[in-house]
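Example 9 (inverse folding). The structure is encoded as follows.
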């Protein structure tokens, strides 16, 4: 994921006037439809299961044991089998959505979106997502010798997947409202975009988030709809802060309000900060634009980092298990758990 389009120069940021207009909605002028449950800020009085950060951390570590999960690699194949097995263990139904995708250099890969569903018969649904593949290039590494090496993707990919597997475990042991269903999708081929240093005649957002592009055009259930969606990306680093990502505000401001107010009630407003964030081309964008499902992106953004947008180890060989903090996983997991169990 990157600013507006991954690895595009900073000059490609959205014009300031447009940003200022859209950011006005941060004050609540864009609201959830009247038929939804958030207008009066009512919450269901339900028992919220405890999110276990140690468990989520183990799920992150288990992914890294396969090695970089780069499409076309043995690690990628083995990790897909393991992820499917975890969802089969916890979800009511689980499947792999196979697809073929042409990446920026015209190589065609066999992609695998891995999907688990809870209460599949329920018409009201929540969509949760994260990408499970890892970047084939550490093209932002401070050492030029590392910039053609693949990355572990501990934070960039595995952290969101780890949180969602723990959510799946909780859902298997603590059933939600039977009228509500949850779908967890691990998107593939999110991070196989052009190398930062490669010469090219042009760039396109379509080179990124290939798995979510495919799913958005071909959902696993024909005519699939969800009340809202939440994407997790880079949710495990120490000191992570999550501002209101720009496209999330543009397409799904009421979902941002729902999640950020939940975090505020829980005392986590220092993590889920009520400030505008950069525009990130990520898996939530096709879900919003193609599938028409309002989906937000909970993503660590840091304008003071050395790359100017993401945390310092983004797309570097340093994005390894040492960058995963259980406290960050816990806070994100607790907020997400409460949002799910309080929904109706």
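The amino acid assigned to each position is listed next.
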């Amino acid at each position: 994921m990157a600013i507006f389009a991954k690895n595009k120069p900073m000059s490609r940021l959205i014009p300031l006037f447009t940003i200022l207009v859209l950011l006005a909605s941060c004050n609540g002028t864009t609201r959830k439809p009247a038929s939804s449950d958030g207008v009066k800020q009512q919450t269901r009085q339900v028992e919220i299961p405890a999110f276990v950060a140690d468990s989520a951390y183990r799920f992150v570590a288990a992914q890294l044991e396969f090695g970089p999960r780069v499409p076309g690699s043995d690690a990628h194949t083995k990790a897909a089998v393991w992820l499917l097995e975890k969802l089969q263990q916890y979800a009511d139904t689980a499947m792999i959505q196979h697809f073929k995708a042409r990446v920026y250099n015209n190589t065609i890969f066999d992609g695998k979106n891995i999907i688990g569903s809870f209460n599949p018969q329920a018409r009201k649904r929540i969509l949760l997502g994260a990408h499970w593949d890892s970047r084939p290039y550490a093209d932002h590494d401070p050492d030029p010798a590392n910039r053609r090496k693949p990355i572990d993707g501990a934070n960039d990919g595995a952290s969101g997947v780890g949180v969602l597997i723990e959510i799946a475990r909780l859902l298997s042991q603590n059933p939600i409202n039977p009228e509500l269903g949850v779908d967890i999708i691990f998107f593939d081929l999110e991070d196989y975009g052009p190398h930062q240093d490669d010469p090219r005649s042009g760039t396109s957002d379509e080179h990124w988030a290939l798995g979510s592009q495919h799913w958005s055009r071909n959902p696993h259930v024909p005519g699939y709809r969800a009340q809202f969606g939440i994407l997790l990306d880079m949710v495990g680093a120490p000191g992570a802060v999550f501002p209101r990502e720009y496209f999330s505000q543009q397409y799904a401001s009421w979902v941002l309000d729902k999640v950020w107010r939940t975090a505020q009630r829980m005392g986590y407003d220092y993590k889920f900060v009520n400030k505008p964030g950069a525009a990130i081309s990520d898996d939530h964008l096709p879900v919003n634009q193609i599938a028409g499902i309002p989906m937000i992106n909970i993503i660590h953004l840091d304008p003071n980092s050395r790359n100017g947008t993401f945390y310092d180890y983004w797309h570097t060989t340093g994005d390894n298990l040492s960058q995963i903090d259980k406290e960050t996983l816990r806070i994100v997991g607790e907020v997400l758990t409460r949002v799910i169990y309080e929904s109706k």
